[in-house]
Design goal:
By secondary structure, the chain is mainly α. It is 79% helix and 0% strand. The chain contains 10 helices and no strands. The protein is elongated. It starts with a helix and ends with a helix.
């Protein structure tokens, strides 16, 4: 089924307006009128797609997770080092493709639900991909994933908040080194 380009354009305007508003104020203070004004649509148009702002938030969360999963599907698992390196490359590419949107989204104080969904999705995806090639002890995997994945997301969020002082490719390279070689490799 082909989706009408006008629908995509309108939804994109709503998403962008919502993300911008989230970076400016708390979710509980955002109104449909705020979103409509910022998206340059009327309230009726908003209601053609959503019944409330929480549906917008949920769709953004689901689309963000889906976008990351699709990019990760492109990775061929050869060995752990190349897999992790490719994971960062795909993650970086996804963010670079829509830098302004992700910048607003990750700067918001309302990002916890989105981050939990991304973390859970990435953990499950990575585990399934690794299990395709080798046996994985659940306890060990969860320990490593619970340590690494939220830290990676946190680094990216802080990168956005600090106005991207370092090129994202360099940041991804540092994260790859940190994950594969540990903190001691950084301290040398």
């Amino acid at each position: 089924m082909k989706v009408d380009k006008r629908v995509l354009k309108t939804k994109r305007a709503i998403f962008t307006a919502f993300a911008e508003l989230l970076s400016e104020k708390d979710l509980s203070h955002i109104t449909i009128t705020d979103i409509a004004n910022k998206a340059d649509i009327n309230r009726k148009t908003f209601y053609n797609y959503y019944t409330n702002i929480y549906e917008v938030m949920e769709e953004i969360e689901n689309l963000t997770v889906s976008t990351f999963e699709k990019k990760l599907d492109e990775i061929e698992f050869e060995d752990m080092t190349s897999f992790i390196n490719q994971l960062f490359i795909q993650f970086t590419d996804t963010i670079n493709n829509d830098l302004e949107f992700f910048s607003h989204l990750f700067k918001t104080n309302n990002r916890s639900i989105l981050i939990v969904k991304i973390v859970d999705s990435l953990k499950e995806y990575i585990k399934n991909r690794i299990e395709e090639k080798q046996e994985v002890d659940d306890h060990t995997f969860n320990l490593i994933a619970d340590f690494c994945v939220p830290g990676i997301i946190s680094v990216y969020m802080n990168w956005f908040i600090s106005n991207q002082e370092m090129p994202i490719e360099e940041l991804s390279s540092h994260l790859t080194q940190l994950i594969l070689q540990g903190t001691l490799s950084f301290l040398k």
